[in-house]
Write a structure and sequence with these properties.
heterodimer; A: 153 residues; mainly alpha; ubiquinone (chain B); mitochondrion (chain B); NDUFA8 (chain B); transport (chain B); repeat (chain B)
Chain lengths: 153, 176
């Protein structure tokens, strides 16, 4: 029984020369700039950035003005062409409505059985129809294609 | 539709004229000189359109605009076709928005040709964004007068007695 306990046991002890000292002292990070330098740097960089931003903003603004000038120069021509086609289409729409409703007794074109939509405007006034009325007699696929451009953009 | 038979619409034959059959890039390339060349017609048409607020009343002005545009592009075709095509091609293919900023070299060539042959100068920067005064012979449309109603509440007479305010002021919330 006693022989079984004769194992050499190693005791847990400090290494030779003792433990290293515990590093409990605060080691602050190395400071490259002082606080005032940081403030000055921030202001300097901001001023530099504002300068560069303004250069770009001026460039973009000039570009926008040039593009707008160009569009305004051709706008009267496009509007004149559009007006002519628009009036032609209004006449086509009115003729189509007359053709469609010719069998309905009492129906008058542009009114609901003789009752006008707008009662206070002069009889000859041209009230521009809304999109759905303007496209009422077209092919539905044309309607949807146009509506996708006009009403959703 | 709201357009009744009483509304006078112009006949189709009145509205049919030769239209400007050109692409956007071409129109944009010629836009500055075009705006200068047709300035009078354009201003006349736009003034009419915005004063009258009715496309039917400005048909003739619009036809003048289209005729002038056609005349301008015919002149360009006769005088500076190669330079113009080069410039329009550059505008068409350099960016997605027909930007002019990538085409300054071809623009210079085109401007020079226009100045030499047609004596048309490129208008100064932002010219068409500025307010321009136009003198026209067309009479101004009558302004709608303010409505007068016979049963309106009569105003106080001029010599009505005005007592001093009871609570020191007549601000609108002091409804004494």
């Amino acid at each position: 029984m006693a022989d079984a306990c004769q194992v050499i046991r190693k005791q847990d002890l400090p290494p030779p020369g003792g433990y290293k000292p515990i590093p409990f002292k605060r080691i602050p990070a190395k400071q490259y700039f002082s606080g005032y330098t940081l403030f000055a740097g921030y202001i300097g960089m901001t001023i530099g950035a504002i300068y560069l931003y303004n250069l770009t903003a001026q460039r973009i603004k000039k570009h926008e003005i040039e593009m707008r000038s160009s569009k305004m120069a051709i706008y009267p021509m496009l509007l004149a062409e559009r007006d002519r086609e628009y009036l032609k289409q209004l006449r086509r729409n009115r003729d189509a409505e007359a053709e469609l409703m010719k069998d309905v007794p009492g129906w008058e074109v542009g009114t609901y059985y003789g009752e006008p939509v707008y009662k206070l405007v002069p009889q000859d006034a041209l009230v521009e129809p809304i999109f759905h009325e303007y496209y009422a007699h077209t092919n539905p696929s044309d309607w949807f294609r146009r509506a996708y451009i006009k009403l959703r953009s | 539709m709201v357009v009744t038979n009483n509304v006078v619409l112009p006949e189709e034959s009145e509205l049919t004229v030769e239209e400007v059959n050109l692409s956007t890039a071409t129109l944009r390339a010629g836009s500055f000189h075009l705006g200068k060349y047709c300035e009078n017609q354009n201003n006349e048409f736009m003034l009419c359109r915005f004063e009258e607020q009715d496309p039917r009343k400005c048909i003739n002005e619009g036809k003048a605009v289209t005729a002038c545009t056609l005349e301008f592009f015919r002149k360009v075709k006769k005088a500076c076709l190669a330079e113009f095509n080069q410039y329009a091609n550059c505008i068409d293919k350099s960016s997605g928005e027909y930007s002019f900023r990538y085409c300054r070299k071809t623009q210079d060539v085109y401007d020079k040709c226009m100045l030499e042959n047609l004596n048309l100068e490129r208008p100064p920067f932002g010219y068409f964004c500025e307010v321009r005064v136009h003198d026209t012979k067309r009479p101004k449309p009558p302004v709608e007068e303010k409505a007068v109603y016979p049963d309106a509440t009569p105003a106080l007479p001029e010599d009505a007695e005005k007592k001093p305010a009871r609570f020191g002021s007549r601000f609108y919330w002091m409804t004494e």
